[in-house]
Specification:
Elements: H1 6-16, H2 19-26, H3 30-37, H4 45-55, H5 62-66
Helix pairs in contact: 2-3
């Protein structure tokens, strides 16, 4: 199952300017972040929790950032 992370990408740019800076704050490599954002590696629950905190995402919006399915 693939997820659409366009909204997440936008929020990352708003808060951290680049995916690289966001990956550093998350404590993961740029490569790992890239794999997650392209659906090659899933986000772990702990990573989602940390991202929600860092990106200041409201609880009611988590679904739209992390669980919007890619339309085939």
């Amino acid at each position: 199952m693939s997820y659409n992370y366009n909204k997440l990408r936008g929020r990352i740019v708003e808060k951290f300017r680049t995916q690289v800076e966001f990956a550093r704050e998350m404590g993961i490599s740029e490569r790992t972040m890239s794999l997650k954002m392209t659906n090659k590696m899933p986000f772990k629950q702990q990573e989602i929790s940390k991202a929600i905190e860092l990106l200041e995402i409201d609880e009611g919006e988590v679904q739209s950032y992390f669980f919007t399915q890619e339309v085939q």
